[in-house]
Each structure stands twice: as structure tokens, then as C-alpha cells.
Amino acid sequence: MAAVIIPDSLDREVLAELRQLAVEGAGLNQMVSRVQERLGFVPEFIVPVFPYFCTAFSLPLKEVLPLREYSKNRDVPELQGLLTKIRQAEIAARLPLIQAAADGSLDELRCPRCECQTVSVYFTRPAPEEYRTWFVCSACDFSMRTQNSSKPEHYSADRDRTGKKTVSASQEQER
Ligand SMILES: [Zn+2]
Predict the structure, then answer these.
(1) How close is the Cα of 171 to the center of ligand 1, in Å?
(2) Ligand 1 centroid vs 139 CA: distance in angstroms?
(3) Cβ atoms within 10 Å of 98's Cβ, excluding its own
(4) Which of 59, 94, 129 is the C-terminal boundary of a domain?
(5) 111, 60 in Cβ contact below 8 A?
(6) CB atoms within 10 A of CB 63
(7) Quick check: is 2 in a domain?
(8) Same structural domain for residues 136 and 169?
(9) Domain count, the chain
(10) Residue 130 phi/psi, 5° resolution?
């Protein structure tokens, strides 16, 4: 088996982009070529891409190895399994946020994208009895919304952004 050298430091922006692609439902094709493009690798040069997948989605190397077959045959069954694991990892990375909000920790939560302790919780009420919980990072453009079936336990009016133009500064920039 070929040895894979895991670099001391991976490009955090590339890791963040990789996670974002997974959230958006991108295929392996898109994810692999994004890493290669950003790092300046040719399409045949796939081994250096492995550590990015391992780190971004907390996967052991053996789970990522089917990617070796990727350039030859894109229909390897293991590749579908890998894609499923990547999407599950991305969902799992968001669960601590939901748990923290349920416990009443509403600031300085760890961002699953940029890994800074910069996520805050806000609320909106699209209808009188409808609540949404927002998780917004002030360091990157991460934001996530969950729907609540009842009033969130730690809801407070000062964190209610209903009717405010934007929930986060980064969303404002997008306009
Ligand atoms: Zn962030």
C-alpha cells in the first residue's frame, strides 16, 4: 500500500470549501476537482487529496482510499459508500450546535466550517406560533437554520431577528 504523507497543516480554506460542497450535496467529482484546483494539482494527482477528505469529514484513511479508483472508474460501489459517509459526517458536525442551543449555550459555539468559537444563536418567528433557530458564524459565512415545532426553550426577544433585514452581517454582504 502506498504511504500517504499527511501534511502538518492543511489549507483551512480548502477544508471549509470541501465541507460546504458536501452540505450543498456536491458529488465526489466536484469535491475532488475543487481540492485539486485550489492546490494546483493535475487531475491524475489524487493521493494528496486524501488528507483533505480525512480531516474535513473526520474519516480514517481506509475509508477515503476508494478514491484511488476514482480516476479510473467512477462507478466503484465503495465510492457511493464514501459519499454517504461524507454527508453523514457533515450532519454529525452540526449536531453539537443543536445540542448546545438546547442546553442554553447561545454564544461562542464552535463553527463546523471555520472551527472558530464564533457561532451565535438567533431566533425568528415567521408566524406567531412558528419558530426558527439560526446558528450564525461571525468569522465566516456559515449559517444554519432549524425549524422548531414549539417555542425554543432558550428563546428570548433580544435574540429575535424577525423583521430585521438580515440575520447576519455576512448575509448582508451577499445582497
Ligand atoms: Zn465559521
Answers:
(1) 13
(2) 5
(3) 14
(4) 94
(5) no
(6) 18
(7) no
(8) yes
(9) 2
(10) -115, 130
